[in-house]
């Protein structure tokens, strides 16, 4: 068996094209373009690249991007004051605070200051709570993007065992909630889990979001499983690696995401989608992409 690739670039391009058409139609009706405020604190090279990619994606679909690049030594109260100002700015529909933040800033405290209706990353406790209650509004970008990828390959959820490796608030926990809503039986593994291979071998659907190169060995993968690799690490030689031992896993899985080109593009596309929803372009219960 050789696994088929789940092409995140292609699915993301389809979603972005759909978003672009929605924005064009609304502008023709006299509505202003959606506005996304992007905040970068400091000079972290990876964060700078992520922010640039997100701003370019906004340009591609017609979202107005407002950029705030702040010094790494900014005080927490100054950052909170900026967020409060953006919360009250009627031209700003979404607020994206790029993580990680410098040590002097409490990320949870600052994220809690973002208006939940403008929380396009889906990190606010209110939005995660809505997801836990099966009443989602703005959903966490990476987990929801993964669900769109799985829907694209017509993944079956009910009666399937989904195993998630990693329990962060950004990916692992909301991913578990998404898969529970879809009807899967869900196991979440983390740093205190004993015998990780045992759980991975049971997975009909495996999602790994650890950020440690090839921590998931190919021989652990269940025959015919769907494997989603969220992790991405740059090696010393400049090459990129995922959490999963790709070539060995591909011999056993039915479907697998590549690194790069799998989950990453969907995270950005869902950010744009969430910005449209925050702007009121999309009803919260509308099937707006034909996938979910």
UniProtKB/TrEMBL annotation:
Domain Tetrahydrofolate dehydrogenase/cyclohydrolase NAD(P)-binding span(s) in chain numbering: 140-279
Presence of the UniProt keyword Oxidoreductase in the record: yes
A GO CC term assigned to this protein in UniProt: cytosol
Record-linked CDD domains: NAD_bind_m-THF_DH_Cyclohyd
Residue ranges constituting the Tetrahydrofolate dehydrogenase/cyclohydrolase catalytic domain according to the UniProt record: 6-121
Keywords from the named record: Amino-acid biosynthesis, Histidine biosynthesis, Hydrolase, Methionine biosynthesis, Multifunctional enzyme, NADP, One-carbon metabolism, Oxidoreductase, Purine biosynthesis
UniProt signal peptide: none
EC id: 1.5.1.5, 3.5.4.9
Coiled coil (UniProt feature): none
InterPro entries assigned to the protein according to its UniProt record, in alphabetical order: Aminoacid_DH-like_N_sf (IPR046346), NAD(P)-bd_dom_sf (IPR036291), THF_DH/CycHdrlase (IPR000672), THF_DH/CycHdrlase_cat_dom (IPR020630), THF_DH/CycHdrlase_CS (IPR020867), THF_DH/CycHdrlase_NAD-bd_dom (IPR020631)
One GO-annotated biological process of the protein: methionine biosynthetic process
Known catalytic reactions: (6R)-5,10-methylene-5,6,7,8-tetrahydrofolate + NADP(+) = (6R)-5,10-methenyltetrahydrofolate + NADPH; (6R)-5,10-methenyltetrahydrofolate + H2O = (6R)-10-formyltetrahydrofolate + H(+)
GO molecular function: methenyltetrahydrofolate cyclohydrolase activity; methylenetetrahydrofolate dehydrogenase (NADP+) activity
Hydrolase recorded as keyword: yes
Binding site residues for NADP(+): 166-168, 232
Pathway assigned in UniProt: One-carbon metabolism; tetrahydrofolate interconversion
Family statement drawn from the similarity comment of this UniProt entry: Belongs to the tetrahydrofolate dehydrogenase/cyclohydrolase family.
Biological role stated in the UniProt entry: Catalyzes the oxidation of 5,10-methylenetetrahydrofolate to 5,10-methenyltetrahydrofolate and then the hydrolysis of 5,10-methenyltetrahydrofolate to 10-formyltetrahydrofolate.
Subunit structure: Homodimer.
NCBIfam families: PRK10792.1 (NF008058), PRK14186.1 (NF010783)
Protein name per the record: Bifunctional protein FolD
Organism: Aquicella lusitana
Lineage: Bacteria, Pseudomonadati, Pseudomonadota, Gammaproteobacteria, Legionellales
Underlying gene: folD
């Amino acid at each position: 068996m050789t696994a088929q690739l789940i092409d995140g670039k292609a699915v993301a391009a389809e979603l972005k094209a759909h978003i672009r058409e929605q924005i064009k139609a609304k502008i023709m009706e006299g509505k202003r373009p959606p506005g996304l405020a992007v905040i970068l604190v400091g000079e972290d090279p990876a964060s700078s690249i992520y922010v640039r990619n997100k701003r370019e994606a906004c340009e591609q679909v017609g979202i107005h991007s407002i950029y705030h690049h702040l010094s790494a030594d900014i005080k927490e109260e100054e950052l909170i004051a900026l967020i409060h100002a953006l919360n009250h700015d009627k031209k700003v529909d979404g607020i994206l605070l790029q993580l990680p933040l410098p040590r002097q800033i409490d990320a949870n405290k600052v994220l809690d200051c973002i208006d939940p209706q403008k929380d396009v990353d889906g990190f606010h406790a209110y939005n995660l709570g809505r997801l836990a209650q099966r009443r989602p509004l703005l959903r966490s970008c990476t987990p929801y993007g993964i669900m769109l990828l799985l829907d694209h390959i017509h993944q079956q959820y009910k009666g399937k065992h989904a195993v998630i490796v990693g329990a962060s608030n950004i990916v692992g926990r909301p991913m578990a909630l998404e898969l529970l809503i879809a009807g899967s039986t869900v196991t979440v593994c983390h740093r205190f889990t004993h015998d990780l291979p045992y759980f991975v071998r049971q997975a009909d659907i495996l999602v790994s979001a650890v950020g440690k190169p090839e921590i998931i060995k190919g021989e652990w993968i269940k025959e015919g499983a769907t494997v989603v690799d969220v992790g991405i690490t740059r090696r010393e030689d400049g090459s990129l690696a995922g959490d999963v031992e790709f070539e060995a896993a591909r011999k056993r899985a039915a479907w697998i995401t590549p690194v790069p080109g799998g989950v990453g593009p969907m995270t950005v596309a869902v950010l744009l989608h969430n910005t449209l929803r925050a702007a009121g372009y999309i009803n919260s219960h509308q099937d707006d992409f034909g996938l979910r």
